[in-house]
Prior knowledge:
Strand order of the largest sheet: 6-7-8-9-10-11-12-13
Domain Alpha glucuronidase N-terminal: 6-130
Oligomer: single chain
Largest sheet: 8 strands, parallel, barrel
Radius of gyration: 26 Å
Distance between the termini: 32 Å
Strand content: 5-15%
Bound molecules: beta-D-glucopyranuronic acid
Protein name: Xylan alpha-1,2-glucuronidase
Family: Belongs to the glycosyl hydrolase 67 family.
Helix content: 25-40%
Active site: 296, 374, 402
Catalytic activity: Hydrolysis of (1->2)-alpha-D-(4-O-methyl)glucuronosyl links in the main chain of hardwood xylans
CATH class of the largest domain: Alpha Beta
Amino acid sequence: EDGYELWLRYRPLPATARAQLQDSAAAIVTLAPDSPTVRAARAELQRGLAGLLGRTPATPAAAIAATRLAAGSVVLARAADLPPSFAGQARLRALGPEGYLVQRTRLRDADVILIAANADTGLLYGSFAWLRALQTGTGAADRDLARIELASSPALPRRILDHWDNLDRTVERGYAGESIWNWWELPDVIDPRTTDYARANASLGINGAVLNNVNAKAAVLSAPFIAKAAAVAGVLRPYGMRVYLSVRWSTPLELGATKTADPLDPAVAAWWRAKADELYAAIPDFGGFLVKANSEGQPGPQDYGRNHAEGANMLARALAPHGGIVMWRAFVYNPASHPSQNNDRAAQAYEQFKPLDGSFDANVIVQVKNGPIDFQPREPVHPLFGAMPATPLMMEFQITKEYLGFATHLAYLGPLFEEALRFDTRAGGAAAPALTVAQVLEGGHDVAKVGGIAGVANIGSSRNWSGSDFDQANWYAFGRLAWDPLGDSRAIAREWAAQTWSTDARVTEPVTALMMRSREAVVDYMTPLGLHHIMGTGHHHGPAPWIDDLERPDWNPVYYHRAGRDGIGFERGAAGSKAVFQYAPEVARRFADPATTPSELLLWFHHLPWDYRMPSGRTLWQELVAHYDRGVAEAAALQAGWERVRPLVDARRGGDVAQRLARQHADAVWWRDACLAYFQHVSGLALPPGTRAPAHPLEYYQALRFPFAPGHG
Ligand code: BDP
């Protein structure tokens, strides 16, 4: 076991389960006409059943013409391949182009397991879903694996992984080795790993990949790179995945093809139209562009006095004739350049984008990070969700754990994703029913405004793909929630654990429990009570709340925590930046008052005195210390919990996890000690009685340097 197989290990089922299934899954019969996608589905069923049952199923040829089916067949059929009298036809129709139905049924005089869909991709998704159900025992009537019933379709049409992969194969914020795209050898040599990547994504229903970093290079749109991207697209296509590219705003200017990159310049628009034609000639199902513009030094339409909509629409018009989309990022912030601009970074994206609601073309989706700052261990939901009813929005999560301990720490992100997706924006008004972020992504009440979901991938060429075994779960959870944004993160963790570690409940239950407490542990030892962005400069791994000398004010941790003698926290209420009022009135009211702000977001929204009384009865200072202590205790508990599971799993992966958990515990102590030493220093407060003093003086932590931390070029 080296983690390469991810959650698609297909190890033998327990004997009773095998016995249930043996006779009802003896052959795989395809009624759907042959296609690369149908072949992929059949191959996966063969591989899966061979592993689970220890016996390779037969795959009789020419089944389409056969009038009779053998009992014990697993049948792959599209709606069109089934008789109109098939009882599930109406249900199937309602499942749309990507949905699937799995049921035990009688077909052509035989008792079979039917995997049905409207299109080939649905057959592939249904095959993976059935194999998952076999391994996790879900959906089985009377716990009989031969009687699994499933019916599902995705809530969102675009479920995309964003790779921050550079053309030199380094990966921005990547902690899992170099990029899986071997640009040097492509298109002549295609790594077989690309197929396994596509299988893993198809098993979750992820249907798109942005191949390159949002901090894009012009070269990605050169003819040689288009040919390379086309080769990757060819491998992903049978698995229902489309390829997208991140593009640099100034590409035509940099390539010397135009004299400007002004979106309203006809020559610029013509260049992009011709480029789109060239792309679609090479990749007929090319998905479109992802754009980071006027953000962190990247060029954009504002360089020419144009706004984001003018920029996005110009690109959208080049792609529209081919059915492509523009995913335009709302990750923008700038130190105030004029008095009317809010100095609070958390307020700036809303300020720039909200006024543009309704002015984007239909094939533009605005891509918004889950929170208003930057992928922190905990953030409130971004205020743009619910605030742009006339614009399709796309959620951007970060699967790679830039701010949560890289691949070194165990932090299962399912609960973080779930917290954001289920947040009720109240954007419909006080009298209206809930409008969760998940519903906003689905278009609110306007299906024409359906957006999507994207996750910044944590994938690299390390043998186990994600750098650590547990980080595979974050890829998995992202995919499952992209399919069903109201999915339950605990159920997803259990599913993943059963497929990845063991179906033995003595493993799945404790592993699920460890996963479910891991993210809160990280919040506690890094940034409790709503603190944010106090990580070390550049790498963002360790603590550095003292940093105050970076070029831009909003890059300094002191800007975010504002700790001093008088207290701690960023005031975003009426007396401060007023960013709370970007939320719907009901939410704004809740966050504007410290007494009604959830304590886990308290210092995000409020600057409060150290002796502020918390609901627990403790002072704010005592509460902060208690959270840091709890974070360390939780890190120790993760370690101890794993030691109990470890004898039940394979030695290689078990040992790797143990090493990471030991480092995580040490890092948690480091975080706690460094932060408490610093906050004591600025507050002048003594530690509460009985509290362990930091192991070293503040200067020790301030002197630590990490020149070789990964992921930041
Ligand atoms: C930040 C990362 C930076 C990315 C940026 C982005 O530190 O590397 O380029 O997000 O999302 O979190 O564009």
